[in-house]
Please model this.
Amino acid sequence: MPATPERYLEVQNSEEFGRLRQTLRKFIFPTTIAFILWYALYVLLSAYARDFMAVKLIGNINVALLFGLLQFVSTFLIAWYYARFAARQVDPVADDIYQDIEGRATAGADEGRTV
Model:
């Protein structure tokens, strides 16, 4: 028997779920802000600092190309770091919460059975 809507509300209001949300927020908000600022810097420099972005570094590779490629690198690094962070700090807590919900739902279904 699946958990009831009341059980989900109870879990949502629990201290453990609140800590899980806080842990996620402490990672997601600063990382998102940092990435948006990094991207905005790239866009603003491309629009208003054309001479700087046109500086050649090696052969035909200029600052603008390097910054553009670093956008991809930073995206993949953030994804990798989030996966590592989630596996260590988010998933175990989320699994515990899920097992608690499923455990109580199963226990409630077993109590209603007659043998």
Remarks:
- The chain has four helices and two strands.
- The chain has a mean pLDDT of 90.
